[in-house]
Every structure is written in structure tokens, then in C-alpha cells.
Amino acid sequence: MTTPLVEMDGDEMTRILWRIIKDELLLPFIDLKTEYYDLGLKHRDETNDQVTIDSANATKKYKVAVKCATITPNAARMPEYNLHEMWKSPNGTIRSMLDGTVFRAPIVVKGIDPTVKCWKAPITVARHAYGDVYKNTEMRIPKAGTVSLVYKSADGTIEESQIVHEFKGPGVCQGQHNLDDSITSFARSCFEYAIDTKQDLWFSTKDTISKKYDHRFKDIFADLYENEYKEKFEKLGLEYFYTLIDDAVARIMKSKGGFIWALKNYDGDVMSDMISSAFGSLAMMTSVLVSPHGYYEYEAAHGTVQRHYYKHLAGEETSTNSVATIFAWTGALRKRAELDGNAELSAFADKLEKATLETIESGEMTKDLALITTIENPTVLNSKDFILAIKKNLKKMM
Predict the structure, then answer these.
(1) Which pLDDT tens digit goes with each residue over 260-315?
(2) Backbone dihedral region of 363: left (phi > 0), alpha (psi from -120 to 50 degrees) or beta?
(3) Contact 210, 163 (CB under 8 A)
(4) Cα gap 226→269, rounded to integer Å
(5) Which uninterrupted H or E stretch holds 173?
(6) Which residue(s) pair with 365 in the sheet?
(7) Considering the entire predicted model, what is its pTM?
(8) What average pLDDT does range 44-70 have in this prediction?
(9) SS3 content of the chain, % helix, strand, coil (to 5)
(10) How far is Cα 225 from Cα 183, in angstroms, rounded to an integer?
């Protein structure tokens, strides 16, 4: 390697797997160069979360990052980690700084069959990583009264007000927002990723009900496609398809897969978990943040595997699935190789992925996969032994 990757370390069980993956599957085989940032919760607290900001800025510099799963603290984590503050999600901070869209796709392997029998190829979920319910303002309504939505322009020339609801008694109210710039970046990332991966692009909202909010998404996607991407899509034989989200769900359940499904923030959050579970396991799903500015950040789609971490601390054996974390590394290495013109590094990433899948297909796997595999009499391996089994297969390919 000539240009380093930005390496973002994380928390709990995935942090332990991170070190084993580096020691066993990467450092013995490649000249790995990284610019390291410790995004473990303790270090984020020690730096007042500056390390998260620094890692995002480094990603802007080097273009490619690989990230371990991290804790977003809740009230219970405050005394556990003796935190000074309930820090924001590092993923949210990084996504905001990079202006990126999250693309998540299941890792398909023989012996782990999708629950939906007609699915033959991965369905990639593109999630808009800004706004909606994740940046909402909520209000508990204590008694009868009126809630209004008010807009005042900064220069004072426009003022509009609409009644949200006239409450006759207690209730709740929520306000959401989004930005044209963010929606446009989301759409552009989706179109570019579709071209890059040679996949059709579907987009769905509920614009028949949300005639301004959701319709704005629909219009921005349509305008960008017509003005910038239609000719490129047609040249590659690709399709851009818009439909209502309920119709999209019905179509997807009868599809063969093999396309990108672009969704608003909340929809993407929910549907990516549905897709991953239906394909087999959340531990078998890749995740990449793609920015229209040319930044890429790869990670596993799952969290820090807290339950297994506590078992590990108690000295108990764990059988944690490391596939998605391995594929975060291979995705980042392949993108680094592409940007640097490093064919040898790209070939290594391919071999590591192949070795990982062949290990599972040979019947050696972690417990979560053994419970759902169609392979007879699988061998259940613990967390480290599974990685060592992959290393054995990788050595044969090198």
C-alpha cells in the first residue's frame, strides 16, 4: 500500500475481533498502512469526542476509511463508562461531516438460504442518513390546545402558519425536517453507486400522503435523473424506477433481487434490518457510506455485540460472527486499491472474501449461522477459531 486507510477502532466484542482480524488475516499477508483513530467510547470521552471529528476529517483527506462498530451511549452507559457526557452517535457525526449515503447489502453464501425463496441476488438498501425522525422535535401535549407549524424567513419578508392539530385533550406532536442539499446529495450518491455497481435503482416514498415532504424527495430524484443520469443509465442498460413504498415492498417480496433500493432515513433503517434478516443474519451484511464528494467509509452493519462481550469478560467462550467486519476491511482495501491502481491489493481483498465464504461453505462457521444453515452437520467454531479457519484457507490461495 502507498496511501493509508483511515482506521477507526471501536468497542466491545467487535473491538476484540478487529484486533484478531488484523493480526491473523491482514498483517501476515499485506503491507497494511493505516492512520489510526481510537473511537472506543472511553477515548471519545477523554477527547470530548474530538477524535470522531478528526477521523472524519482524515477520511476527507485520504478518501477511504474502515470503521469498527461503536457504542452510542444511553443513560445506562453513563455510570458504566464513567462518561462526562452522553455523546452523540459517531456514525451520525461522520455521516453528517462526509455528507454520505449508507448502502447496505447482504453477503450471500451457499448454505444460508434467504427466507424469501425467490431472492437470488442481494438487495442493496440505500439509506438517506439525514433528517426525518432522527432530527425531530417532539412535544408532549398536556391538555386541550392548538399546535401550529410556523415559518418565518430570515429576512422577515415571509411568514406562514398552518395548524397541525387542535387537541381536545392530551396527546403528542412531532416536527420533522429535511434539506434540498442533503436530498440532492443522497440522490446523486444513489445514481453514482448504481452506475459504479451496474445495478438498477429503485426509489420509494409515500408522496400520495405526504404531498410536500415526501414529494420533494420524489421531485429531486426525478429532476436529477432526467437532467444528469438518464443517458448514462440507458447506455449501461440500467433502470431507474420510482414507486410508492407499499408497492415497492410488495414487488420486492416477489423479485429476484440484484438491485439498489433507495429509501428515506427511517424507512432505510427498518428495511435494511428486514432485508438482512431475511437473507440470513445482520452479521452477514456489508455497509458503506458513500459521499458524492468521493469519500468512502466501510463498516459492518451490526453493533458491538454487547452480550458476547460480557461473556468474554466473564471468561466464557463466544462464537461471534466476524464476516461483516472482515468484509468492511475487504471493501475498504478494494476501494483503496481502485483509487491507487493497486491490482495486487485488489486481488488480496477478493481472495480474503473468497476464503471467508469457502470456510462457511465447507461447514465451518459460527453458532448463529449453524442454527440456520442447510449444510448438514456443520462445525461450530468459537470467535477466534473461525478467523483462524479462514486464515488456513487464505494461505492456500496466496
Answers:
(1) 999 999 999 899 888 988 888 778 899 999 988 899 999 988 888 889 988 988 99
(2) left
(3) no
(4) 28
(5) strand 171-175
(6) 380
(7) 0.87
(8) 96
(9) 45, 20, 30
(10) 13
Count the helices and strands in the chain (H runs, E runs): 15, 16
For residue 8, the cross-strand partners are 37, 67
The alpha carbon of residue 283 and the mean position of all alpha carbons in its chain are separated, in whole angstroms, by 12
For 284, residues 6+ apart whose C-beta sits below 8 A from its C-beta are 106, 107, 109, 112, 276, 321, 323, 324, 369
Alpha carbon distance 362, 335 (integer Å):
28
Alpha-carbon torsion 12, 14, 19, 24, what sign? positive
Q: Are 300 and 324 in contact (CB under 8 A)?
A: yes
Where do we find the cell 458503506? 288
What's the pLDDT score for residue 170?
Answer: 97
> Which strands sit side by side in the sheet containing 200-205, from one edge to the other?
34-38, 5-9, 64-67, 296-300, 285-290, 101-106, 124-128, 259-263, 200-205, 240-244
DSSP for 274-302, written as a single string: HHHHHHT-GGGEEEEEE-TTS-EEEEESS
Rg (alpha carbons) of the chain, rounded to whole number: 22
Condensed to tens digits (0 to 9), the pLDDT of residues 204-252 reads 999 999 999 999 999 999 999 999 999 999 999 999 999 999 999 999 9
Cα–Cα distance, 322 to 366 (Å, whole number): 9
Half-sphere exposure of 194 (CA within 13 A, CB side): 30
